[in-house]
Each structure stands twice: as structure tokens, then as C-alpha cells.
Amino acid sequence: MTPAARPPSGTTSPDAVPTVRPPSPPGAGRVLALSSVAFTLLFAAWLMFGVLGLPVRDEFGLSDIQLSWLSAVAILNGALWRLPAGILADRFGGRSVFLVLLVSTAVFSWLVAQADSYAVLLVLAFCVGFAGNAFTAGIAWNSAWQPQHRKGFALGVFGAGNVGASVTKFIAPALIAATAGGTWFGVVQGGWRLVPVLYAALLLVTAVLLWVLTPRQDRRPGAGRPLGEQLQPLRRLRVWRFSLYYVAVFGAYVALSVWLPKYYVDNFGVSLGTAALLTATFIFPASLLRPVGGWFSDRFGARRVMYWTFGLMLGSTGLLMMPDGHVVVQVQESFDPSGVNEVLPYSMGLVPFVSLVFLLGCAMGIGKAAVYKHIPEYFPGQVGSVGGLVGMLGALGGFFLPPLFAYATGWTGLPTATFFVLFVLTGACALWMHWTVVHMLQEQSPELSDHFEHPRTAELEATSR
Fold this sequence. Notes:
mainly alpha; two-stranded antiparallel ribbon; 71% helix; transmembrane helix; two-stranded antiparallel sheet; 2 domains; Growth Hormone, Chain: A; membrane
């Protein structure tokens, strides 16, 4: 068609076929609603030791490093099986995988309340960690049920179930304080032991609702596909790069969710309840802004959003990692008899600290969606397996980071070393991404590699002389 024959703007060609968006299949809404509720509860159970850890530390006399491993082993088990969980959901249906996760997590949560030693708690924390693998199972399940034009919204709604990390922060401190020293239902001790029992009951109720209300004839898009084909993306360096990004925006989010309550109590002297509420100001934006991050990525491009994300994270962690204190300089005794002077004093109060952590949470929430936006662009036919792999490797960062926080604090004697670790991690991600972008541009346009100005601008400057 020539330009003259092209229909005017705003009109439709008579030969054009109108785009008809298919409706969602019956049951898709129930799958989305119940999987989101289940994921929120499973996520809350997965990270419950972030708050329970403090009264557990007091009861069992644990060190900070022992306490960090209690949370870390739960996070580890919630990362190891993310790829298999996504593959199993594709092969056998997300409904079956979710039912297994809900019932098994309920059993292990109940047993946590009966633990009588640190060793038993460590084993049970690892077992409760199975709950963390619900993310990739839910992504695969909802992808199978939602039409293409609704997948972005549906996966954003489901992914916002990360806010489950705040559930324990809200209910546990008040419940622990109100029930400490008592016995409930004749068998359950009050205090921190009542919280996992409550989760066990809620998880079983959710399992029953999911069994009754979701379609029994599940969708299984991966049935019959060779396992080798699903695991093939593991050979691509790009997948590992995306995984490192996800360590920074999701693994660090998980790690801080369990680490911040202790940080607030130990360094600002607040109560456990206040520490939990302050931690929620980090968790909410880091969870609920995920759909916003997806919209930004659609609108401006995922790579540009990642630049914004890493820039905000570097700025906030760069300030948070600064220790309170001052610089000591040598001066002449005529100015100061002691021969030294203290200059550039620096300290951070609670309000600016909480504000910077809130900003860090906003960056992580937006960045999580931007990382996953890359995946369908580079691996359109392998979203499930690549997404599961990135989720698994990213969540493993949540396992390694809490002990690393503890060791860095112990080595330096500075609590702010926690944020130095995050600053270094974010800097590594930003440098790798920028190097990749520059290298890619040089490959696509090698003739411009030596030009630091726009070629047309340089030409005009040359002719004007």
C-alpha cells in the first residue's frame, strides 16, 4: 500500500480484522484469587522466623549468628526447589503442587510450636522453608489459566503476595505479648509458639477452600515436554546475569525482611512491636509496587527501569552503610592542646533511617518486576523454566545474605556493615549490566565506538570552522 492509499489516522481499513480478546476461561478468576491468598500465607509462614527469632533467641540463649542461620535455612529450602516446583506445576498442574505445599507447611508449622531445642528448630525451619517454592508454582499455574492479554496483570497481582512477609510482622508481636505464659486449647503454649499453630490452621483452611473451589480439571501446559528442553536455558550467561539482578532486588528483600526487626531492636532500642511495624514500611513498598514496576517496564523499557532501580539502591545503601562517628585529624598543639581534632561528625536518627529503608524498598519492588520483564523478551518460549531458574538463584541470595550480614557485622564491629554488603552487591549488578549494554551497542554499531559525540553534531562543528 502506498502512502497515499493508507487510511487516515483514527480510521480502520476495511480489510483489517478487529482484534478480539478472548475471555478468561471459567475458573481463572478463582485460580488467581485463591492462589494469591495461598501464596500470601505461605510466604508469611516461610519468613515467620524474622519476628519469632527474637523471642526464640531469648528462650534458647542463641547467638546472633545462630539466629541468622535459623532464618537462613528456611530461606534456603524456599529457594532450592523453585525450578522443580515450576516444572511440576507445568507437568501435573499448579493445583496439586499448591495443595501439597499448603498441607506440608501446615504440618511443619505445627511441629515448630513443639520444638524443645535449637537443633530441632533448625530442622523444622528448613522444612517450613518448602513454602517459599510456591512462587514459581503459582506463576506457572496462573500463566496456564490466564489469556495472554491478562497475564501481566494476573502475575503482578499474584506476585504482590510477597506482602505476606508483613503478615507476621503485624500479628506476631501483639499475639506473643498477649498470650505469653498461658496455655491455649489445653495443648498449645502461648507466646511465640502460638503463632506457628495459627499459621497451621489458616493453611489447612486455605487448602480446603482451594480443593473445593478451584477447577479439578487443571491445565498442564508442560505435560510431555522433555526435561532437557526445559533446563536448556541454564547454559546461557544471560540467565545468570538476570539471576544476579534478582539476588539484589529479591534475595536482599527477603534477607532484610527477616533481619530488620532485630536491627531496629538492637540499634535503635525500640520494642519488638515497633520494630515489626517499621519493618513493614520496607516490606509494603517492596511488595505492592511490583505491579507498578511492571507498568514502568512496559512504558519505559525494563533496562531503563533497572538503571533507576540500581541508582536508587546505590544511593540509599551508600548512606545507610555510613557508621556513626567522626573523622579524627592531627592538628598543631597551638590550636588544640590534645593535638587532635574531631571533624565531619555523622550520625543517623531513626526517622531518616526508616525513610531511606522505605526508599530502598520502593526500588526493590519496582526492580523485581523489571527483572522478570526481561525474561519473555529474551526467552519467549521458555518463560516457565527460565523464570523458575531466576527465581531459584535469586532466592538463594536470601539464604546467603543473613549470615553474611552477621559475619560482616562481627568482623567490623559496625551494624551498618549490613548495608555495605548490599552496596557492594548492587554495585556489581550495575557494573555488569552497564558493561553488557555498552558491549552490545559496540557490537551493533562498531563504527560509532570511537565517537563520543553524535556523528551529525561532529560533522556540523567541522563544517562551521
